[in-house]
## 1
Amino acid sequence: MAISGLDIFKLLPKTNCRDCGFPTCLAFAMQLAAKKIELSKCPHVTEEAKKALEDAARPPIMPVTIGTGDFSFTIGAETVLYRHEKRFEHRPSFAYFISDSMEDSQVDDILSRIKTQKWERVGELLQPNSIYLKSEENDISKYVKLVEKIASSTKLSLILINEDIEAIKQALQFCSDRKPLIGSATKDNIDDFISLAKSDSYPLLIKGESIEDLISLTTKASDEGLKEIVLDSTPKNLKQAFNHQIYIRRAALERKNQALGYPTIIFPFKLTDDAIKEAVIASIFVAKYAGIIVMKNVEPESLYPLLVLAQNIYTDPQRPMSVEEKIYPIGDPDEKSPVLITTNFSLTYFLVSGEVEGSKVPSWLLIMDTEGQSVLTSWAAGKFIAEGIAKFVKKSGIEEKVSHKNIIIPGYVAQLSGELEDESGWKVTVGPREAADIPKFLQNYKI
Amino acid sequence: MTFEIPIKSGASRINEVIIGTEPAQVKIGGQNCLPFHNFEGEIPNKPIIAFEVYDVKPENWPNWLTKYYEDVFHDPILWAKKCVDDYNAEAINLNLTSADPGGLDADPIKVAETTKKIRGEIAVPLIVYGCGNLEKDSVLLKKVFEINAETNLLAGAAEEDNYKPIAAAALGFNNNVITLSPVDINLAKQLNILVTQLGVKPGCIVMDPVCSAIGYGIEYAYSINERLRIAALYQGDKAVSNPIINTVGREVWKIKENRLSKEEAPEWGDEESRGIIWEASTAMSLFLAGSDIITMRHPKAVTIVKEVIKELLGGEVK
């Protein structure tokens, strides 16, 4: 939240002592408002003023960074309710659920999945980046041994959950340098957890029996100086889980409720016994504000679509609906490679380029500017027609890239082929109507 | 410490649209709050799912989808009945693919007859889409509205370049029309204005802002739904205060992730569960963003989404 120079000025000593290096307190206040200088440059500022200024400068939802190294991630710091207003900043982390009541073989299975379950999509490697390590048995040594095993076998970020603070302290000896999220702090153990979290700047998971309970616990933690907090509102069912996410995000952004200005954690498996339904419930909380989503169903068929959904929802909403008119080489094509043409509607481009890539046949994809319209719409509107396509093919420069004159057009505009051959002098082949049929088509296509 | 729920009140209302005639009737729309926000408003009609049925045997559906329908692919009437009887469909979405000039190019009168026959055979409302060819649809949908006159049939799509004959027929025969515009709030608004200027009542229009699957631009569809709904509820924009329909099944089942088997793409896991999750999660995301009707294919995906909708509305929860 922005705070004005005048608001800051009111909180300063107003002595114009110049100890800060500026001629007046007002000048110093203006520099502070512009974030050009730190408040600590004023040696006379009171504790109350300091706190008031910190509160005013605090983001409405605090950023929380968990882990170190490659799998470190930040959640929170969101500023809007709807993604079209301004991009959602920090995708939820998907966490593998592991508990000390699992058989060794089950734990080993998850550890081996962690090594293999990663998927490349639009140039980015997608994978769950954290592990939620839960104590379900009242056995400190068993829990600590599990943490030791996990910490030594994977670099994923760690979430250590044991309501016995002693177990967390012992477990930390194996991962204290990895900035794990620790918890769960409840009203029964909050003081111990706050001092442990403060001791080495660990982010703290706070669990409230209700939103009111959460508010009083986070207020306490914040008063003690903790900044990195993750909220578990312990919903009893899906309706409550959904409502809580909306309440918390709105309270933080629109009611300036700082006690709820932190990212949240969600456990879809607590809301259903069905593995597939667990994944579908998880999808709800991708768009609706979760910071961490803990998964028991860790099969690829559930994690992969969820990771892709999160990648999609958290893209920049300003990204246009059309792609640039040009030649897109796919898979290192040469002068003998096939040439395909379609329109510059982004959804058309995603589908077609994805399928051409999937075909493993190196190809040239010509994308023509149809003002972002799909094949059928732009054809109907007279934008994707023989004359225009022929002109575009000529000026695109594709003639210098290939030694043949064969072009594949979308199946939906088959009727263009004769006229296009006449206009362009290229031999026209009618491709499939649906992008999904492109791989089979290209694999059988002979120039 | 008390916590006051941060509600946003004072929202306008989405038009209520009645689809079908009793006993095969359902109402959609009518809400004055965002999806599943019934803590701050009223949602008199829950969002619904329509099973996609085609009047031509579909090609290129994967085995893990065809196995539910292959015994009825040859007959759209049996297909629709199976969706209702075996899979508890709450609505049927019939797609008149046979009329496509690029395919069978069937006679509009014959194609339209199928719609009437199906309507007579099922106890749930029918939603009809043409073949997608703008010219053919303008003739075909006219016949469809005529043969189903006065039945609150919902059919479309009327687009910028063919809305006149289609919307006029919907009006003339007292039915409901789907207005389709590609992922653009201003085009959607413009088309609705044009259609209402022909005399179609706002309570007879459902918008199809075009959707896409997870991984293929769902973020655009998500935000268009959400923007249309926010404009209607909080800016009181009457030109977009219509229920929204999204055709998820046909988008989700054409992508490569739902074509390749476990053997062909082991890294993506079990193919059938993958398809169910892909379809159900795409549908759920779009319902969250404002959809009132979604068309789907896999019976298990439909069952799960129905359960989740019920729970999100605060229905019986275990």
Note: Chain A has three domains: 5-57, 64-313, 326-444.
## 2
Amino acid sequence: MLNHAAKGFDQVLYPACRATLEGGVVRVVVSGDWTLAVLGKIRDIVDDLGAVKPGVQPVEIDLGQLQILDTAGALALVSLRNSIDGKTATFVNERSEHRILLDEVARAAPATAEAPPRRRPLAEMAGWFLTAATAIGRDAIRLTTFLGETAAAMARVIVRPAKFRGTSFIHQIQQTGLTAVPIIALVCFLIGGVILQQGARQLRGFGAESLSIDMLGILTLREVGIILAAVMVAGRSASAFTAQIGTMKMREEIDAMRTLGIDPIETLVLPRILALIVALPLLVFVADMMCLAGGALMAKLYLSLDLPIYLQRLNSAVQVKHLYVGLIKAPFAALVIGLVGCLEGMSVQGSAESVGTQVTTAVVKAIFLVLVLDAVFAIFLSASGF
Amino acid sequence: MNETPPRTQHDYAIRVRGLTKRFGRQVIFENLDLDVMRGEILGIAGGSGTGKSVLLRSILGLLTFEAGTVEVLGKNFQTLSSQERIAIERHWGVLFQDGALFSSLNVLQNVQVPMREHLDLPQKVMDELALLKIAMVGLPANAAYKPPSELSGGMRKRAGLARALALDPGILFLDEPTSGLDPIAAAAFDRLIRNLQQTLGFTVYMITHDLDSIFAVCDRVAVLADKHVVRVGQPMDLVRDPGHPWVREYFCGERGRVIARTS
């Protein structure tokens, strides 16, 4: 039983282990390379040797024929020694460089017994629910606080207009407004055409095809123009604000501004929000017009109505109050988009990963809040007779 | 399958010959030669912008260069197939400046990444080995389950070192291992590298600004200046015979003299 050898691995460079009984001492002769590359074989060998139980005789692990040793092999040898008996089993004939490594591994090895922290799935789930449930409340408080800070900064700027960052304001109008015109115009042109065409198709059953123009006019001016423009701007500009401010936060530029006596809300947030408040109504007007233009094209193609007839029909269907209903929502939507974008940017923590998460959050929240805002306005304005 | 090459003392771990590297019209290196012996700790010093990091990246194959050859463990990197490249890459570990730990994984998983990628080991064995490495670099065991964002700068470097050591590399590349650490932590890190190097017997290629590190750890120093390696030698030899204005200023300044006297 003690001549239990590792079968088949007795070539020089393969790890091997042979146990013999010599004069009351169990001698385990280790040879070959004990490295990570042959760890599978090492484990087989050690498992085989596990059958050797020394009883009372001392055990000597002879490392004289050991060739190359790395940490994985050293760990296997140390755990082999400890598994036989930590006290009576010893290493003999080891080379000095192996000795250093074995000592180091033996010193560090007890730490491997450390178990990972216990997980409590139920508590974790409860905690997750609690966080999610209170998130809305916390978000509302954060957003309101931020609105207050921005309003305070606005008040300071009104008192001392010299503090206003005019260049930044104009630049942001260009970035959020002018450069958004092509994409918003194109999308609205297409959607306007689609609404008219679908409306005409459904109303054809009642012989009221031309009512689709009334529908398009009212729907566009009241809802579609503002929603399309606001959602596009939320996607473009809220993300841009978060990324810009977030990157500055990450590189401690915001802290640097504070130490230099510059208020980041006045410098970064206010120009952006004000620019958006100016730009979004203009974009909504562009969106309205492009929707109606798309409708005009579709009226010609689908209903064979010429432009003058289309315009006459539109003129009798819509009143100017419908345009106002759409436009009045734009500054509020702009405020929400700007606040969310800047607030999420300010919430960025140290890492680049955090910028990515905050940008995603900003876009999702901005679009969500814009739609909620629109619904609230729709209810309020209908109820008050507009 | 004898993976680790035999260790003879005067063998080259890295051999750079005639390296020329340009960025546009800016020449970084011109005909640069550098030898790193097996089993030594070579420090790379040089002023800002002399291309210490560029040289490291060229050796690692992260940057291409215009002319010259880089041999790592006797293999010319540029002529290798991607298969052979991976075989070489298994034999080196790299510690980037801030550890470059993967932020979505905890420390234990970070250390296991190379094992998972290159070896087929049972999870239990990988856990044991990774915890051993984490203990060897001097991190407390409870750090193993923390994400990198919860570690201090020094702990991130140690965790990065544990990952670099995961496969028992033949060559360890360190990019300013002590920068951003306080002097005591830096000295501890120097000792750690020295101890691990003596224990595991690997070659160390270490970029450093830190005179303390150079005198405490390095067997030899190579100084980069004027697009070349201007001086190579033992730190004390460079103090005695600087031979280049930058080397003189660096090693024979007030700080250099103090450290050279005490070490």
Note: Chain B touches chain A through 31 residues (CB under 8 Å).
